[in-house]
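Q: I have 209 residues here and want to know how they pack in 3D. Can you give me a structure?
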Amino acid sequence: MDFFEVVHKRRTIRDFENKQIKDEDIKKIIEAGFCAPTNDHMRDWNFIVIKDKKTVITLLDIVPKGISEEDMSNLIRDWNLNDNEQQACYRDAVPKQYRMLADASVIIIPLFKQKTKILSADNLSQLNGFASIWCCIENIFLAATAMNYGCNLRIPLGNEDEWSKKILGYPDEYMMPCFIGIGQAQKDAVTVRQKTIDIDERIHWNSWI
């Protein structure tokens, strides 16, 4: 699979087979993450790899296990999700937030050091650590795709990051940007329709106009 095939094949997967991933494959996927650009050249990232289902269940205890149709409709309205394809994406994603991680073969928790509070940064430069870890996460997604695994992620809501720190015991100076679920996609796994983008309309040569 060449690079551009991997890029186009990558999709968020929320439906998994009950299969294990070899530790060697997990290491290879995370190693690809370490090839991402970093703000200070130090790549001060760590990863908690969770395969033990008891730990998974405890970790995810704080994640909602579903949503009613009424609440789903209210969410679409309150978040101003007016596009039909966007609505379809959320209707698939939101109810599966618990199951897509619980059913994954492995949950990976990426950790990075953030010297200033993200929500009170004085300038974009103070967010360099946060930006770098997302480059790392994209590499992880592409590496997993190249190895024919499916991936998903959940950005922590409420106090899910504090709960995760309590359960997993990582140091206070580290932050988790997301939960990552990786596994073997079911043959009939849902892949929502992607927006069709006209690249010529999105590229502005030399200036916006």
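Q: Anything worth noting?
A: The chain has a mean pLDDT of 95. Strands lie at 45-50, 106-113, 150-154, 174-175, 179-183.
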